[in-house]
Amino acid sequence: MPDLLLELFCEEIPARMQAGAAESLRKLVTDALVERGLVYEGAKAFVTPRRLALAVHGLPAQQPDTHEERKGPRVGAPQGAIDGFLKAAGLSSLDQASIESDPKKGEFYVARIHKHGRPTPEVVAEIVPAVIRAFPWPKSMRWGKGSTSPNALRWVRPLQSILCTFGPETEEPEIVRFEVDGLASGDTTRGHRFLSEGTIRVRRLDDWMAKLEAAFVVVDRERRKDIILNDAKDLALAQGLELVEDAGLLDEISGLVEWPVVLMGAFEQSFLDVPDEVIRATIRANQKCFVLKDPKTGRLANRFILVSNLKASDGGKAIVAGNERVIRARLSDAKFFWETDKRTNATVPLSERLEKFANVTFHQELGSQFERINRIARLAKALAPMVGADPELAERAARYAKSDLRTEVVGEFPEVQGLMGRYYAELEGLPPEIAAAAEEHYKPQGPTDVVPTAPVSVAVALADKLDTLVGFWAINEKPTGSKDPYALRRAALGVVRLVLENGLRLSLIKLMAHSLRLHFRTWHASALTTRLEVLKALSAVRGAETIAFPLSLQLGSLWESQKDQRSAEEFELFSSIGTSLLSFFADRLKVHLREAGARHDLVDAVFALEGQDDLLLVVKRVEALGRFLATEDGKNLLAGTKRAANILRIEEKKDGVSYEGGVDMVLLHEPEERALADAIAALGPQIEQALAREDFEAAMGFIARLRAPVDAFFDKVTVNAEDRELRANRLRLLADIRRTTRAIADFDRIEG
Fold first, then answer.
1. Which pairing describes strands 159-167 and 183-186: parallel, antiparallel, or unpaired?
2. Residues spanned by CATH 1.10.730.10 within the chain?
3. What phi and psi, each to the nearest 5 degrees, are found at residue 425?
């Protein structure tokens, strides 16, 4: 079957846009082909710094014929209806339609439309120009004489040629003819910018790839990456060194070169006095080069790997020398910063360094970095006993953790913050717990990042993230859609992972209350502007939370138990923040557990219970509930419980009353309803006792015993009896089923 080859050649495609552009081209073109009935066997996109290409294999030579039957108006209908039918069906007169009859509707017109499929090149010539004009570049430009016209083509950089061929492997392919903004399609392309001259005529994919490689262009992005990685490892091995692999840098470099040539350079041994991470950050950021390490010492070597886009006549000596000059200058700066910081840390006490943060605004409504550091320190001290850390040491570590933000090295290389804090703490001779906390308190920064386990580090990391979350929730700066400018989702997921992976038993409600009190102190001290507007904004969205938590009383009692007198506005604000933020934690927990195969509805069902703010217990309960619902007893009891809840919901709404309350045993006439009431009365206390000792497996075992009496009740007993007292009593019995099962989870929220 024929293949399609498309190449869009332009001045430059920025490396950061290449992967997305290749995927967009593949999807836009193939979706349009399928939409028009042209089903293909396979498609692959290619991208280099100068070209975007697509090969589609196994396309038919033309669209399939289509047959459509369109029903029209009845015979004798008004002329307007008939004219509309003829126009829609593409008919010139009713003679081209047939008449059919229906026993109920009478006779009506039917158009049978047969359309011959168009040749594939004709369809492609229609698709590609539309794709080019509407291509979703993050940034694009107009150029040339027609650039002043609003209808002029916009592209990432000036589009210089379009190659488009179609045909089977055994025949000479044809050029798919079309034009975009005066640029006509053809069958020619160009090779490397400097190593090749003139145009190259190509036919199909294999011919295109071979001729471009001969013209010093490797069109496959993954192959360029393999060449760079393997050649870099070989060069390192030849010197007895190891490459420090960097997937992000490799991806970026592969988007900068069409003909990768890997070379090695060197710098002075004296620069190795600078921390390895700073050397790596310097060389990576400024020259896009890899660093090497000595396998014997584990430290960096004074060598680096660079990737050129040229096969130089001198073997790359001039290119290496140029990179060495730049890297030498950059490392000189880094060494100066490092030496300056060491002198400063040796002569200026921590208290004076922290005072500098008073002039640094963290956020306009959340105060300075100095105020934030004080909040984190107090919260870390309160958290310390809960995570097994020394309170004084945790507070001291929190005050030190962000001190490196005002250093010269971190000012130049923000990506080494935290890590430099550890280096400076070690230079000052501070306890190792403080040095570790300085480095680790930002972690985890992603789903695969390592989680701190040292108690002091855990206390500071939790305090840092909770302060951020509570603060931004208090000023109503929550994530919306895909926007999360303050990385609050990452912070919440960090809290979830810190708690679960360290097996911590924490009350999020109490921690949020403590954190918010610290924020209130900051606000009062700075003559805070009114929070009523914030309260109104929060109240407006309270009904839209993904999970409605019955926490108002619990939050209120926690807040009022404090000795300080709080205003009504503060109480309402705290209640709103607590409810909303706990819902946010539930969402992040669902995301985290989904990776482990847990069901999101079970998380909802458990979190819906009052007081479920201990993440470790929530997960244990979810796991036990999942195992129970996988059994026959669990499945059947879920069905019965849902049936009871649905009946109650309907009847309570209709009657305008709640049927929660004691069942009158005298009115239990049927043996099945008496057996159910006896089972609930016997099992209820046992379930509560099992839950109180956190034995969720036992609780599930007790609730499983309800399955038989619930099944028997629905098989034999009519709930909506004619006798009003009997009906109400049976509805109260259903309410007892709901109440008993809700000790485990809100079964209404469980799917199935």
1. parallel
2. 631-749
3. -65, -40
Each residue of 531-540: b (16+ CB within 10 Å) or e? beebbeebee
Closest to 519 in 3D by CA, of 360, 350, 363: 363
At residue 108, the 3 state secondary structure works out as strand
Q: Using alpha carbons, list the distances in angstroms from residue 199 to 55, 180, 186, 741.
A: 20, 20, 11, 76
Q: How many residues does the chain have?
A: 752
Question: Side chain identity at 48, as an amino acid letter?
Answer: T
- Is 421 within 8 Å of 438 (Cβ atoms)? yes
What would the pLDDT profile of 450-480 be if each residue is shown by its tens digit? 999 999 999 999 999 999 999 998 888 889 8
pTM over 0.90: no
Q: Give residue-wise pLDDT tens across range 132-190.
A: 999 999 999 999 887 888 888 999 999 999 999 999 988 899 999 999 998 999 999 99
List, edge to edge, every strand of the sheet that includes 106-115.
66-74, 106-115, 98-102
> For the chain, where do the domains classified as CATH 3.30.70 start and end?
3-61+119-214
Contacts 24+ apart (CB under 8 A), 188-191: 188/161, 188/163, 189/7, 189/9, 189/51, 189/161, 189/163, 190/9, 190/50, 190/160, 190/161, 190/215, 191/215, 191/216, 191/217
Asked if the model's pLDDT at residue 654 lies above 50, the reply is yes
* pLDDT tens profile 182-216: 899 999 999 999 999 999 999 999 999 999 999 99
According to CATH, the topology of domain 631-749 is Isoleucyl-tRNA Synthetase; Domain 1 (1.10.730)
Class (C level, CATH) for 3-61+119-214: alpha beta
Q: What is the 8-class DSSP label of residue 62?
A: B
∠ CA(710), CA(712), CA(717), 5° rounding?
95
pLDDT for 98-118, tens place per residue? 888 877 778 888 888 777 889
Whether omega for the bond prior to residue 78 falls within 30 degrees of 0, making it cis, is: no
Q: Which residues pair with 480 in a beta bridge?
A: 483
The average pLDDT across 664-688 equals: 90
What is the 3-state secondary structure of 571-589? Answer: HHHHHHHHHHHHHHHHHHH
